[in-house]
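INFO batch 0412 | record 1 of 1 | parsing
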Amino acid sequence: MCDRSVVNMEAVIDYIESHLDGKLELEIVAEAVHYSKYHLHRLFAETVGMTIHDYVQRRQLTEAAKLLVFSDRSVIEIAFICGYGSQQSFTSAFKSMYKSPPAEYRAKGSFYPLQLRFTLHREVAAKKFTKQSIRMAENADVSDWMNLMRLVIDGYPVMDEADYLEKLKASIAEKRALVLRDEEILIGAIAFTYVPGSIVFWGIHPQYRNRGLQKLFLDVLAEKYLPGQEISITTYRERDKADTGQRNMLIKLGFAEKELLTEFGYPTQRFVLPPEKQEDIKHG
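INFO prediction complete | emitting tokens
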């Protein structure tokens, strides 16, 4: 059955995508699509997995990054094209997300998106998923896995798709990748290493993030594949504006903060889940 709220949010996304060159504050979008701003804020966040403000900013800065790499337009021109009123405000916002000022990012010549246009599934089942619903990934899952990765790119601050695809295929061949499907939709995926026990990718489709699937994957990983091991993962550092909730999710699941790192030139932090904490989660 088609979810009417999803259809309505598709209209909101269409409006945002058509006006990325202008101011897209909540009040403006709400008025354009005939919603109260409070109702729109709640419904958009529930459906898309982030606020309108976060989605708009990430989309505008993604388009800006693309123009910096693939065009010769000036920084001030790109700022105006992507909805910013001044070069200063644009530079500040861009640096907070991409960790380098626009000119430096352009000089590197390597584009990656913070946020691609969000595509919603109109029919989302209300069924309950169990640990038995999670299975080993197969080569037939690769295309859908890559689409999920692009959808949840917020968990990956730097992305080289060719390199990622190669590593994904290796993870599948070595039985280090798990997936969860809802019929034709790949709604969750996790890739890991056995020694040391670490999570190298963990993605849940935003429309399913309120189903407890993060804990489901973690339970399967801890009980079946990494029993008795410390499980580690890296994510954004505290107060990184590019983080849309990854850190909070890990903390709620019992992960503890560890050392600060720099990966691919990006500031990150390692989190660990010790074996004793896994027992608490299992019985929680």
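INFO post-check: The chain is about 45% helix and 15% strand.
INFO record closed
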